[in-house]
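Marked as duplicate of an earlier ticket. Keeping the data here for the record.
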Amino acid sequence: MNLLMISGDRSIPEARRGAFWYTLEELKQYFERVDVICPKPKNSCLSGVVHAFDRVYIHHSSRGLWRQPWWILKKGRELCGERQYRVMTVHDYPPFYNGLGAWMLQRKTGIPYIEEIHHVVGYPRAADFGEWIGRRMYWLFFQTIGKRATAVRVVNQEVEHMVQEWTGKDHVRLLSSQYLDRKSLQPDSSIKKKYDLIFCGRLVKNKGVENVLNVLVYLHKVSLLIVGDGSLFSKLKAQSSKLGLDGRVTFTRWLPEKNDVYRAIQSAKVMVVPSKSEGGPRVALEAMALGVPLIATRVGVLKELEKGKMYLPTTGEIEDLKEKIELMLFDQALYNEYARRGRDVLTMYCGEKLIKEYAKFLKSIA
């Protein structure tokens, strides 16, 4: 059986091995072929059709996002003329160009499709006016084009409850996307703790990284490693310099392999995730699995872990972040307890099991 996937992730044609690459690496074993249609890469390193690995092909556009629905229709019809697809899955978010393209393609080909909502932009807090508008687009989408989907997949309970209100309970399936690799997520005691804190992720407005830098002004000996890239990279570096933090804040862009990321995480004592909205984030769970205690806002899947006291919650505001960082860094008994409890996520989110369930769900729609 062949799978057609509509995604907004461009990391593979940009020659980056992110979470999407590793998901496809595991998912491909359940399908004869996987074709992914995605937008134009921001920094195109690979041209044409990208043969990611055996049985997986990435077809990226050469034009801007506003033309993406028509690229999905054009490329999708071309692929359907070459082979049969019995199901199509669509990773969607505002302004829902993927959903629009999938709907147009479904009308032409009759392929049943699944809408995948991994998080609601701007919920629980919007980072800017654009996210505020984006959050309100979901209801409109599911009252119009979105209701044409055969099913909707969500990845955490927070989003499940919201989508059920928009679409009806029978239409929604909760399948976690926190695919943790048990073999790779084993603590390495030989890695020295060079940093007090680490942030790892896209450097964009909803991540709340600015507040972490502002907190360091009041924590005079605390160091921070920032791993990631994004639209705020230059702005955050300038902010760090302006605050006089150059000697204590280290920036590194995306790392090439997940094991490089895991080593970077273990080089810090504590991970901070001060996001305003999230679907996961998976990197937070990976830190916990590696025995690195987590300070995070109550977003995405993290809400489901709060009852087990597996991480230390924060509002993400400067004063509360300062209090929680001091508590975690300077109370050794508390630190050890969170390091121990956090490792339980490995039994809750087994990547092989979750991807197998995901593949089974996709095939059930065909």
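See parent ticket for discussion. The first strand starts at residue 2 and ends at 6.
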